[in-house]
Structure formats: C-alpha cells, structure tokens
Amino acid sequence: MKTYKIAVIAGDGVGPEVIAEAVKVLKAAAAKDGRFEFTFTDYPWGCEYYLKTGEMMPEKGLEILKGYDAILLGAVGYPGVPDHISLRGLLLEIRHGFDQYVNLRPVKLLQGAPCPLKDVKREDIDMTFVRENSEGEYSGSGAWLYKDSPQEVVIQNGVFSRKGCERVIRYAYDLARKEKKTLTSISKANALNYSMVFWDQIFAEVGRDYPDVETHSYLVDAASMFMVKDPGRFQIVVTSNLFGDILTDLGAAISGGMGLAAGANLNPEKKFPSMFEPIHGSAPDIAGKGIANPLASIWTAAQMLDFFGYEDWGRKIVYSIERMLVEKKALTPDLGGTASTSECGDEMVRILQED
Ligand code: NAD
Ligand code: IPM
Ligand code: MN
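^ inputs. structure came back:
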C-alpha cells in the first residue's frame, strides 16, 4: 500500500470549512480503493498566525513542507492583515519557492451547474487553463521610490524569462497533444511590446515541435469577450500569470461560480511538492456560517489524485460532483440549495461509497 503524506494548510476564512470536506473525500477514496492511503498533518498558518507571531508561516516553513508528497491549501487572506503581506508571505512564497510553475485550472460546465450565458450547452464550456505561475506580472519585482513624498514613484516589473515561458508553454502543448485538443495562447503583444511579443515568439517557436496541435492566439481583451460570447472556441489555454488569474475567475463565473472552481499548482518534475487549492479566496462575507461550497476543494482533491496517477479516481470524483449537481439534494446556497458545507461533503462521501 502506498502512503501519501499530505500537509494541510487550511488557512483563513472559509478555508478550514471547505478543506475539511476535501479531506473527508480523500479518506473515503483511499478506504474504498485500498491501493493507497493518506496521512494528513495540519499547519495552522495564515492571518491569525500572523497576528500572533508576525509571520504568515515560520521561517523554516518551506523546509517543513518539503518532506510532503503534496500540500492541500484552503485560502489565504483576511481583513485585518494587508493582502500583499498575507499572500506574499504564504501562498506566493510556496508557489515560487517550490517552483510550482503550472497553475492548472479546469473551466468546465458540469451537467446541472448553473450558467449565466444564454443557449450554452455543457460541451460548449470545456476548457483547461494552463496559467504561468512562477513569474510574469506576479514576480514581485519592483521598487517604491521616494515613498510618501510628492515625487513618489512605483515600478512593478513583469518578468518573463525564456526558461519560464518555454516550460509552461511546452507543458500546455504536451497537454493539448495528449488530450487531442486545440491550444490557444492568450497575450497582449500590441500594447506590451516586450513581454508579450516575447511570449508570442516563444509560443510559435515551441509550436514547431508540435505540428499535430492546432493553435490559436488571441489578445486578452478579445479573449475575455469571446469567453462570454463564444466559449466553445477554447479548449486548452495557456497564458501569463495575471491574465490567467483574471480569466479563470471569469471562467468560474460562466461554469457554476467560485464554489465550483478548482486549481492545482504543479511542479511537474516533482522536485518539490505540488499544492492543491480551490481558486476562490477566504470569502469573508460568508466565513464562519457553514455555508461555503466545498465542491471546488473536492474537485481540487480530485486533481491531486490525478497527479498521483489515480486518474480513475479523479474522473470518479468529478462525475460524482456532477451527480450532486443534477440530483440537487445537498447543494449549498450559492448553487440554490439549503445544505451546509458538511452536509454537501457527506453526500459526496455517500455517493462515492455507494458506486
Ligand atoms: P473570494 O474568492 O474569497 O470571494 C469572492 C466571492 O465568491 C464572494 O462573494 C464569496 O462569498 C464567493 N465565494 C468564494 N468561495 C466560495 C465558496 N466556496 N462557496 C460559496 N461562495 C464562495 O474573493 P475576494 O473576496 O476577492 O477575496 C477574499 C480574500 O481572499 C482576500 O484576502 C484575497 O486576497 C484572498 N484570496 C485568496 C486566494 C487564495 O488563497 N488562493 C484566492 C483569491 C483571493
Ligand atoms: C488566485 C489568487 C492569487 C493569485 C492571489 C490571492 C495572490 O487570486 O490564486 O487566483 O492571484 O494568484
Ligand atoms: Mn485569483
């Protein structure tokens, strides 16, 4: 039997509420399968920890996490601690420190999920975003000069390295080839005359190794319009850190909402642990009420099982989420139901045990 060591950083706001349900589902999958098991170790890092200690995680945080097979993360950030401190000190620190350069975010309209777009069928929204996750606009490079004086200047650099662009673009081409899908690059070379011209050039260069993959390129402004007007154009999508961040919230909006939006921060070489987290934040407006939707976290757990090589379980969990959406017996209020977070997780476990 294979044992996977999972570090759990439930984090802030609804993070602990939704992560508890993902852990339930992972335990149920392991119990049913018998080939693998998990050990879960909780780390109480986040904004409360910051208010007590002055740091979001201990100085040795990455060293501690390095020994795990994966990290399961809820959400980071809460009123009372400035976002740029909480996120830089924990979430981005882990993504960067562990070279999790691929942020894999499915944007798929499951059967039964609500969609605000008119005349859209399930198969019209079936995308996978490959978001660059280690540099770009979120590299944290910049300066604040003459602070608090009339001549103050801020500079926020976009950092696009050849290695950084090539590897994420190659990952996306490989995925498109494997899944026999089209690949769309989203950039903005008309205005960003260094970074995005370079990105487009590398997209074309890497593409020479993949003559079998059909490609498309869009400017990000047009792409956001087409995601709403004609989402069927997109299958595998590769884009920069900032654009991927924004477009995947848009993707969530057209495919059931933030409560159904999953994501995985991958270090594909497995040199460091990968981190699995829903794409939503700590949702302070509903935190503590027991009504957050855990399905995004549960889908994230399915991505973890995929990454460990149990793709049968990944599919099974997503199929069970779909069944929950169709049966509507235990959905949370964001999906029109009256169930609590834990009732929704319990129903998922029941379905998995029954199948
Ligand atoms: P958010 O994603 O937390 O919330 C946006 C909206 O979606 C809210 O109305 C919220 O109630 C709803 N929502 C989110 N998750 C939900 C769920 N599981 N079920 C039902 N409804 C859900 O975004 P925000 O309000 O902009 O950010 C709140 C905090 O979270 C900020 O500190 C932000 O920096 C942080 N944040 C963290 C992450 C992360 O940890 N990965 C991601 C995004 C934002
Ligand atoms: C996300 C979040 C993070 C990001 C923030 C909280 C730093 O919005 O995972 O989408 O932008 O990467
Ligand atoms: Mn985001």
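Residues 115-255 form a domain with the Isopropylmalate Dehydrogenase fold (CATH 3.40.718.10). The pocket of nicotinamide-adenine-dinucleotide (ligand 1) is lined by residues 14, 18, 75-78, 83, 87, 91, 258-259, 277, 280-286, 292-293, 296, 334 (CB under 6 Å).
thumbs up if we can close this ticket
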